[in-house]
Design brief:
It is globular and about 55 Å long. The protein has helices at residues 51-65, 77-85, 94-100, 129-134, 175-180, 184-190, 199-206, 256-270; strands at 16-18, 27-31, 38-41, 67-70, 112-113, 151-160, 170-174, 194-197, 226-229, 231-234, 239-242, 248-251, 276-279, 287-291, 295-299, 311-318. It is α+β, with helices and mostly antiparallel strands. The longest helix has 15 residues, at 51-65. The chain contains 8 helices and 16 strands.
Length: 339
C-alpha cells in the first residue's frame, strides 16, 4: 500500500508558488507526500503560445518534486505532443511498428499506448500476450532503463478511465530519498555498481511460468542490456539518486544470481510505503509528468482489467543529462525487444 499523504509535510511547504510572466499564470504546488510529488494548479494548457514558459516552470517544479499532477488540462493528442516537444528530444514507436508489425491506433508515433485498448477499440483480455507484456507495468520501473539512451521526463495523459473503485491508479516511489536513507556501508558497497537492464527481465518476472515468454527472444541473456550506473547524481536537483528498476537483471562483473538478489532487495527497499504515494486518475484530461531519473512508477492493478477501458497515452522525453547514455554506445539505435 502507498503511504498516506502527509498532513503536515516536514520537508516541503504546504503550498509553493512560482510566479510566471503575464503569458502564463503563477503555479501553485500542493505536496502529495512528505518528500516528493505535488498537485499543480494555475497552468493554462489552452494557450499554446504560453507553452515555452510553462515548460520552464514545470521543469523547475520537477527538479524539486519529481512528480507533478495536473487536473482537467483539456489536452488532446496534438497539444500533448506539442507541449512534450519543448522538454527535449522525444522517443517514438516507429521502430516497434516497423520491427514487430504492430499497428498504431493513435494519431502520432510520439504517443506510446500504455492502456489496455486494442487497435479495434476493445478491452485487452487478461489471457492475451499483449496483457502479459504490459504486466511489467505493475512493477516499479523507470521508462526505457533497458535502452541505450534512457528516458528523462514522461508525460502521461488520461483519455478514458475505468469506473471509480476498480483500480488503475499510478504509484510513484522517491529514489532520491531512498538513497539518502541508506546506511553508509551500503552506499560505499554499491557506489560503483553498473546495472544490466533488460525489458525481458521485467516481463518474465511479471509472468512467472507463462509459456508465451519461454522463447529465446524473451531471454534476457540472449538479448542486449541497457547499462546504467546504479548510483547517480540527479543533475537538476544536485541530489544523489538510486537508479533502480524492475528491469535490473544483474550487476556487471558480479555473480549473476547474487547481483540480481541484491538488486531485487534494493528495488523492494525503494518501494517501501514511506517512499511512495499513489495518484488516482479522476477524469479524462488529467496529466501526470514525472522525471524517470529520480522516481519510479507503476500501474496499480484492479478489477477493471479485462472489463473496462483504461486509455492512457504517454510521451517520453529522452534524457538530456550527461548520464543519458549510461555506459552504452552514444548514438546507438537498437531498442530492447526488437530483433
Amino acid at each position: 500500500m502507498a503511504a498516506a499523504v502527509a498532513a503536515n509535510p516536514i520537508q516541503m511547504p504546504l503550498t509553493d508558488k512560482v510566479v510566471g510572466q503575464a503569458s502564463q499564470p503563477s503555479l501553485t504546488y500542493r505536496p502529495l507526500h512528505r518528500t516528493f510529488g505535488a498537485e499543480v494548479t494555475g497552468a493554462d494548457f489552452g494557450d499554446v503560445s504560453s507553452y515555452p514558459k510553462l515548460c520552464e516552470q514545470v521543469k523547475e517544479g520537477l527538479a524539486k518534486y519529481g512528480v507533478l499532477v495536473f487536473r482537467n488540462t483539456g489536452l488532446d493528442d496534438d497539444r500533448h505532443v506539442a507541449f512534450s516537444h519543448l522538454f527535449g528530444d522525444l522517443d517514438d514507436i516507429t521502430p516497434f511498428v516497423a520491427g514487430l508489425g504492430q499497428k498504431n491506433r493513435l494519431s502520432s508515433d510520439y504517443l506510446f499506448d500504455v492502456g489496455n485498448v486494442n487497435p479495434d477499440g476493445t478491452v485487452t483480455q487478461t489471457d492475451t500476450k499483449r496483457a502479459a507484456l504490459l504486466r511489467c507495468n505493475y512493477h516499479f520501473h523507470a521508462d526505457s532503463a533497458f535502452n541505450p539512451r534512457r528516458a528523462g521526463y514522461s508525460l502521461l495523459l488520461a483519455h478514458h478511465l475505468p469506473p471509480p473503485g476498480t483500480g488503475g491508479a499510478t504509484e510513484f516511489a522517491d529514489t532520491r530519498q531512498a538513497y539518502d536513507d541508506l546506511d553508509d556501508v551500503t552506499k560505499k558497497r554499491i557506489a560503483d555498481y553498473v546495472v544490466m537492464n533488460s525489458q525481458h527481465q521485467c516481463r518474465r518476472a511479471a509472468n512467472p511460468g507463462n509459456p508465451m515468454l519461454d522463447g529465446a527472444e524473451h531471454d534476457p541473456m540472449q538479448n542486449r542490456f541497457g547499462k546504467h550506473k546504479l548510483v547517480q547524481l540527479h543533475e537538476p536537483s544536485g541530489r544523489m539518486n538510486l537508479y533502480i528498476a524492475a528491469h535490473a537483471h544483474h550487476v556487471e562483473g558480479k555473480d549473476i544470481d547474487g547481483g540480481h538478489k541484491e538488486l531485487l532487495e534494493l528495488l523492494e527497499y525503494a518501494g517501501r510505503p514511506e517512499y511512495t504515494f499513489q495518484v488516482d486518475w479522476k477524469e479524462p484530461g488529467d496529466l501526470v509528468i514525472w522525471d524517470n531519473t529520480c522516481v519510479l512508477h507503476r500501474s496499480v492493478q484492479g478489477t477493471y482489467e479485462g472489463k473496462y477501458l483504461r486509455d492512457l497515452r504517454r510521451t517520453t522525453v529522452h534524457d538530456m543529462s550527461s548520464q543519458a547514455w549510461g555506459l552504452n554506445e552514444v548514438g546507438a539505435t537498437w531498442r530492447s525487444g526488437l530483433p
